[in-house]
Amino acid sequence: MNKLVKKAIEARKKAYAPYSKFKVGAALEAANGRIYTGCNVENSSYGITVCAERVALFRAVSEGVTKFKRIAIVADTKNPCPPCGICRQALYEFAQNLEVVMANTKGRTRKVKLKKLLAHPFSLNNH
Q1: Which one-letter DSSP state was computed for residue 8?
Q2: Which one of 58, 75, 85, 120 is least enclosed by Cβ atoms within 10 Å?
Q3: CA distances from 97 to 40, 55, 94 (A)
Q4: Phi and psi based region of residue 45 (left: phi greater than 0; alpha: psi -120 to 50; beta: remaining)
């Protein structure tokens, strides 16, 4: 298991998911090699719940980092866990060629480029 997936597993342990019980961890690697982690944070008002991927992304951006190489996402699922559509779009804003490492807690992984996961993204360059 690679370092990025291990960081995502550690981040998952901090998830706040009392409603869905679906804990997710993410580890986002910046172009400079620094890793930003995130976990999902739920709320009784479901609409303001934030996914692990966006927590990691927002942490990085809040520190002035906007260039990224890859992200690992981990959840306790049968198959490797992909990012939701909102997270795909949020990540695309900063890293169209991002490598997405989807994983589960059993060690299964799958790698794919973000642009393969997000067909017809919304961006400043296409409207």
Answers
A1: H
A2: 120
A3: 24, 20, 9
A4: beta
Per the CB < 8 A criterion, the answer to whether 108 and 80 are in contact is: yes
**DSSP code of residue 41:** B
Domains of the chain and CATH, by start? 3-126 (3.40.140.10)
pLDDT in tens, 117-127: 998 788 776 65
Pull the structure tokens for residue 89. Answer: 């779009």
Span between the terminal Cα atoms of the chain, in Å: 40
Would residue 53 show up in a list of annotated catalytic residues for this protein?
yes
Instruction: Report if pTM > 0.90.
Output: yes
- Buried-exposed string 15-24: b where 16+ CB fall within 10 A, e elsewhere: bebeeeeebb
Q: How far apart are CA 92 and CA 15, in angstroms?
A: 23
Q: What are 4's two structure tokens?
A: 């990025």
Instruction: Write down the catalytic residue from 10, 42, 53, 93.
Output: 53
pLDDT in tens, 18-74: 999 999 999 999 999 999 999 999 999 999 999 999 999 999 999 999 999 999 999
